[in-house]
Design brief:
The protein is mostly beta strands and 139 residues long. Helix content is 9%, strand content 55%. Strands 4, 5, 6, 7, 8, 9 and 10 form a 7-stranded mixed sheet that branches. Strands 1-12-11 form a 3-stranded antiparallel sheet, with no helix packed on it. A two-stranded antiparallel ribbon has the order 2-3. A hairpin with a 2-residue loop joins strand 8 and strand 9. The two termini are 24 Å apart.
Length: 139
């Protein structure tokens, strides 16, 4: 499935800002919502705002507490919990890190564990599109 890069405006240098942000459907029990997520090949896992867990009624008291760090090297805390996501016609359950540090983020992050292990991704900055193909699990 093909997605267009998402447009985020211009920088002061009048450079267009586009990013590989795609729509994701997240589901927990009977609640399903649309959420946007950045495809980040440098991220180890998938990180979503803790607001998503709150909105969906996920009780994170049973979640595993983990420490993660971003590109800045700053350590942050998150709560790991399984969540069903649907992308490019494929639904899978992955472990998501819910972070309160991302409460005001415009989108979540799709990283290596959970996303890239389940999808082949082709980035074309020139065409401003991303192609995502679900992979077949090895038996």
């Amino acid at each position: 499935m093909k997605y267009e890069y998402k447009y985020f405006g211009y920088t002061p240098e009048l450079r267009e800002v586009i990013r590989p942000v795609i729509p994701v459907t997240v589901k927990y029990e009977n609640v399903s919502i649309e959420y946007e997520a950045l495809i980040d090949s440098g991220a180890d896992g998938c990180v979503f705002s803790q607001d998503i867990a709150d909105l969906m009624g996920i009780n994170l008291k049973r979640a595993k507490k983990v420490i993660f760090q971003g590109a800045t090297g700053t350590q942050k805390f998150a709560l790991e919990y399984p969540l069903e996501i649907s992308i490019a016609g494929k639904s899978i359950t992955i472990n998501v890190l819910f972070s309160s540090n991302m409460r005001h983020a415009k989108y979540g992050i799709l990283g290596q564990q959970g996303f890239f292990e389940n999808f082949d991704v082709k980035f074309s900055y020139f065409k401003k599109e991303i192609t995502i193909i679900p992979t077949k699990k090895k038996v």
